[in-house]
Specification:
Helix content: 40-55%
Shape: globular
Order of helices and strands: EHEHEHEHEHEHHEHEH
Largest sheet: 8 strands, parallel, barrel
Strand order of the largest sheet: 1-2-3-4-5-6-7-8
Number of helices: 9
Radius of gyration: 17 Å
Structural class: alpha/beta
Distance between the termini: 11 Å
Strand content: 15-25%
Length: about 270
C-alpha cells in the first residue's frame, strides 16, 4: 500500500512546502483539500494548475485526490451540485489526480430513501463527465452516511465504475461498524482509505496515529488479508482543531506506525 497525507493537516500551506514535507518524510502522495482558503481550488486558473502539476511531477509525488465539499444528497436543485462536481473533476484532470472526493450531506429531516435517490441520480449523471475526464468520483463515509452500509445504498444503485467510495475509518467506527463489515460493503468500489486517530467518540481531537482509540490495526489487517493494495491517506484534521500539534512533527512517526501495521499484517 502507498501512503499519503491530506493538506487538511497543513491548512493554507503553499504547495512547494507540502511537497517538501512529503518528500522528506517518505510519503508517496498528497490529498489536496479543494477550498478557496487553500492554494488549490476549482477557481485556480489554467496557468496555476499547470504550475502545480509540474511541481508534483518534479518532486516525484502523486496527487492522490481532490478533496471537495460537494454534498451529493443535499436537498435542492441538481444543477448547482452537478456544476460543483464538474469543477472538481476538471481540476483533478488538470492536476493529474485520479480521484475526486465528495460528501453525502443529506438532510436528516428528509426520508432516507429520498436522499439516497437524489445522491444516486446526481452521481449517475456526473459519472459520465468523470468517465470523459478519466477521473473517479468517490463518496466518503461521512456525516449523514457514516458507514459502508450507508454509502453503498447510494453507490450500489449508481452502478458506474467511475463512482466509488472513500473509507474514512473514524466515521465508520463512530457509526458502530466493524472494519470487516465496512470492507465487505465497499470492497468492489473502494478508491482509498482515510486513516486517522482521535481521543474518543466524544472528543474527536486528532492525535498521532496509534495514540488514540480508532481500530487502525484491524483496518490494516482486513485490507491486507483481502489483498487490497491501494492508498492509505492520513487525514489529520488540524484545520478544525487549531490547538492540535503541527502535522509536520508527526509525519515520521505516522509513516513508521503504518509501516509497522502493514508489516505485522503481512
Amino acid at each position: 500500500m502507498k501512503l499519503a497525507f491530506s493538506t487538511l493537516g497543513v491548512p493554507g500551506m503553499p504547495v512547494p512546502e507540502v511537497l517538501a514535507l512529503a518528500s522528506a518524510h517518505g510519503y508517496h502522495g498528497v490529498e489536496l483539500r479543494a477550498h478557496p482558503e487553500e492554494p488549490v481550488h476549482p477557481g485556480l486558473p489554467p496557468a496555476g494548475r499547470a504550475e502545480i502539476a509540474a511541481q508534483f511531477r518534479g518532486a516525484g509525488i502523486e496527487v492522490l485526490g481532490i478533496a471537495g465539499y460537494a454534498r451529493v444528497a443535499a436537498p435542492g436543485d441538481d444543477a448547482p451540485v452537478l456544476e460543483e462536481i464538474r469543477g472538481l473533476l476538471r481540476l483533478a484532470h488538470d492536476l493529474g489526480a485520479p480521484y475526486v472526493r465528495v460528501l453525502p450531506g443529506a438532510d436528516p429531516e428528509r426520508p432516507t430513501e429520498e436522499s439516497d435517490a437524489i445522491a444516486a441520480r446526481r452521481l449517475g449523471t456526473a459519472a459520465e463527465d468523470a468517465a470523459a475526464l478519466g477521473v473517479r468520483i468517490l463518496l466518503e463515509t461521512h456525516d449523514s452516511h457514516p458507514t459502508g452500509a450507508d454509502a453503498i445504498r447510494i453507490i450500489g444503485p449508481v452502478g458506474h465504475r467511475q463512482v466509488g467510495a472513500v473509507w474514512d475509518v473514524m466515521h465508520t467506527w463512530l457509526g458502530g461498524e466493524q472494519p470487516a463489515e465496512t470492507y465487505a460493503a465497499l470492497a468492489p468500489h473502494l478508491g482509498y482509505v482515510q486513516v486517522k486517530d482521535i481521543v474518543s467518540a466524544e472528543d474527536t481531537t486528532p492525535l498521532p496515529l496509534g495514540a488514540g482509540v480508532l481500530p487502525l490495526t484491524e483496518c490494516v489487517d482486513v485490507l491486507t488479508r483481502q489483498g487490497w493494495d491501494g492508498w492509505l491517506c492520513w487525514e489529520y484534521e488540524k484545520r478544525w482543531y487549531e490547538d492540535a500539534a503541527p502535522l509536520a512533527g508527526l509525519l515520521d512517526a505516522g509513516r513508521d506506525h503504518l509501516a509497522r501495521l502493514l508489516g505485522e499484517a503481512a
